[in-house]
Amino acid sequence: MKKKYNIKILPDMNNGDYFIKSLENDNVAIVKFKSGYKVFSLTCPHMGGNIVVRKSSKNLGGENEGFPIFQCNWHGYIYNIDGSFKENPNIENTKNVRVKSKYYNPVDCEKNLKKNLMLNSIKYIIKEDTIEIEI
Ligand code: FES
């Protein structure tokens, strides 16, 4: 059963700032962007692992440089600040067992992850200094 939560917005949040709220039904990250806020579920869309937020390492580069990233503590999948899938850091370690067959193509598998896997973005309503969500 869904439940409503009112989360107090932290004052003076800048682009890329975030905070985490542990709720009864899920943990969520509230991220501030120039255009507003995004609220993400911290349950991994891969297989339901717990996601943590951390500062991106320098080697991620590009437009996400300096922003936090999301990383699952089960299989390590990394998601960008906008919730899109970034990479599976274990792909190199497992390349010997990822062999192409009639039923599996490692290249297609990685492409499909990028295309289909995304953090669950939660709709919200801003009411003065709180964000209201229902999860
Ligand atoms: S459950 Fe998150 S990477 Fe597998």
Descriptive notes:
It is a single chain. With 135 residues, the chain is mostly beta strands. 8% of the residues lie in helices and 36% in strands. It contains 1 helix and 11 strands; from the N terminus they run E-E-E-E-E-E-E-E-H-E-E-E. The chain has one helix at 106-116, and strands at residues 4-8, 18-22, 27-33, 36-41, 51-55, 68-72, 78-79, 85-87, 121-122, 124-127, 130-134. The strands form 3 sheets. A 4-stranded antiparallel beta sheet has the order 2-3-4-9, with no helix packed on it. Strand 3 (27-33) and strand 4 (36-41) form a beta hairpin. The longest helix is centred in the C-terminal third of the chain and has 11 residues, at 106-116. The model has no long low-confidence stretch (mean pLDDT 89). FE2/S2 (inorganic) cluster is lined by residues 44, 46-49, 72, 74-75, 77. Residues 44, 46-49, 72, 74-75, 77 line the site of FE2/S2 (inorganic) cluster (FES).
Largest sheet: 4 strands, antiparallel
Mean pLDDT: 89
Structural class: mainly beta
CATH superfamily: Rieske [2Fe-2S] iron-sulphur domain
Summarize the structure in short.
This protein is mainly β and 135 residues long. It has one helix at residues 106-116, and strands spanning 4-8, 18-22, 27-33, 36-41, 51-55, 68-72, 78-79, 85-87, 121-122, 124-127, 130-134. The protein is built from one helix and eleven strands, in the order ββββββββαβββ.
